[in-house]
Specification:
This protein has 379 residues and is mainly beta. It has 3 helices and 26 strands.
């Protein structure tokens, strides 16, 4: 026999040996659909005999599952009532199982494992493993295929929009500007875990609003009156004369897979700051009179303009005070010629340091003429 024939013979012999190794298989099912926490969970355990093996008379094996997944093994069911099934819980996460049948079986579904609970995060795979197995009371070649299931999230529950009331008009004025809030709220979607709320809205002028987020994890959005007023002030650059805005809104709860919309949306509310902006209109200038205009912009951050008219040359003093009457900054203290005048205040004090948000008073004195105006600094 030459070397080539020897190699072919040895290769053929090895192939025949490999095909002769026909393993019995015990297999735990892997569930395709995600399990919602609290659902009943049923997992099959199957036996595959293999073509060259005698039938299965008995099987002993141990299964194990995680301790930190919050699942409990409630029961083990035998599929064929003629079989004998015994099991013993070694501890809370390990069980010894003995299975026997009166007549040998080949491929079959042996038992069903019944679990409940589950508190792991959505997307977590819960493995159920075979850690030891013996077929026909002998250590026959036995392949063990582990299984398990993936935890899902419950469908977000239905919920209601709460505030502001549908159609409510929210008035912002100089008295409530610095301490008022718009509270946009809805019921919590209580059945879902890891819920994110999708906040959807549109306005009557089809523009976005910087103070309204698109995604939130709580069921309340707080918008200060000062932020809302500042937004209207910025919108005046694109839409001159705008003093109010209607917002139509709705919310949906999502767990990343499923989404539930509010049961009573959409709602709408109006923001009306006309009192602030009407009070800020420039006064009519009379050539023969001292005239002080309302600062613009107002509210402002951080710079505003103070405009005034002098009918004659005058010694002018312009001083900024806080709401308690404390002097903050002396802007002008000099003689000026008659005419239209303007000075800026950059929200700093006499030492050049920025001041906090709040209500400030500016006083303009020119000879016997004195006028005070209120302005609001936002931060």
């Amino acid at each position: 026999m030459n070397k080539t024939m020897q190699l072919v013979f040895i290769f053929s012999f090895l192939i025949s040996i490999s095909f002769a190794q026909d393993y019995r298989t015990i297999q735990i099912e892997t569930l395709e659909e995600a399990i919602i926490p609290g659902e009943e969970i049923y997992v099959n355990v199957d036996y595959i005999n293999g073509e060259n093996n005698s039938g299965l008379n008995s099987l002993e094996f141990t299964i194990q599952f995680p301790t930190n997944a919050g699942i409990d093994l409630i029961d083990i069911y035998e599929i064929d009532p003629s079989t004998m099934l015994e099991y013993n819980m070694v501890n809370d996460f390990t069980v010894d199982i003995a299975f026997a049948t009166g007549s040998p079986i080949s491929d079959a579904q042996l038992i069903k494992l019944h679990f409940s609970g589950g508190n792991a995060s959505a997307g977590t795979f819960i493995p159920i493993n075979i850690i030891d197995a013996m077929a026909n009371e002998e250590y026959d070649p036995l392949e063990m295929v582990n299984g398990g299931f993936t935890m899902g999230n419950p469908l977000p529950s239905e919920f209601l929009l709460l505030s502001p009331n549908n159609g409510e008009n929210i008035e912002i004025n100089n008295d409530n500007l610095m301490n008022g809030n718009i509270e946009i709220g809805w019921e919590e979607s209580i059945e879902g875990r890891e819920i994110t709320y999708i906040f959807d809205y549109f306005t009557d002028i089809e523009t976005g609003l910087s103070f309204l987020p698109e995604l939130v994890t709580t069921n309340t959005i707080i918008v200060s009156f000062s932020d809302a007023a500042e937004e209207l002030q910025n919108l005046n650059l694109e839409y001159p004369g705008i003093t109010s805005l209607m917002v139509t809104w709705d919310v949906a709860a999502t767990n990343g897979v499923d989404t539930t919309a509010s049961s009573n949306g959409p709602f709408s509310f109006s923001i009306d700051a006309s009192e602030i902006y009407l009070s800020n209109k420039s006064d009519i200038v009379s050539p023969g009179k001292f005239t002080v205009h309302q600062n613009y912009p107002n509210p402002f951050n951080p710079v505003t303009n103070l405009n005034y008219h002098l009918p004659e040359d005058s010694f002018v003093r312009i001083t900024i005070y806080d709401a308690f009457g404390n002097e903050i900054n002396k802007l002008i203290d000099s003689k000026q010629s008659r005419g239209q005048k303007s000075v800026q205040w950059n929200s700093t004090n006499n030492q050049g340091k920025s001041v906090s948000a709040g209500v400030y008073i500016y006083r303009i004195q020119a000879g016997d003429f004195v006028d005070n105006r209120k302005m609001i600094l936002l931060k």
